[in-house]
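Task 17 of the worksheet. Students: predict the tertiary structure of the chain below and write it out as structure tokens. Keep your answer in the requested format; marks are given for formatting as well as content.
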Amino acid sequence: MYGDPATIRKILSESGDTWAVVGLSSNERRAAYGVADVLQRYGKRIVPVHPKAETVHGEKGYASLKDIPFEVDVVDVFVNSDLAGPVADEAVAIGAKAVWFQLGVIDEAAYERTRAAGLDMVMDRCPAIEIPRLG
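Model answer:
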């Protein structure tokens, strides 16, 4: 339900190529670092979002979604489930088209709010696993 193939395909191939990756830092051991690399290899522009606002994979970082001075298509969320809902709400507020909660990130209330606001959403899935499957 939270990751149906049609929604996954739509987000990965039709929702746009600018992905804000919330929780992305320069720590190469973190999952966000590797996933952002995969997204870049598949032609996505990644935008690091982390309190440290670090440059990662050659892209300037921002402390929060609201600090990004251009449109974001997809917000990819690498924070604990208890922090994910406010990030989804901020994604709605900035006009993103879709929200993607990573593996293990689950907030059913945030899912319902985000969908009710008209955004596509996937929860408890990884785009680095899904994007190669598009073929």
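Marker's comment: Residues 92 and 114 are 7 Å apart (CA to CA). The chain has a mean pLDDT of 95.
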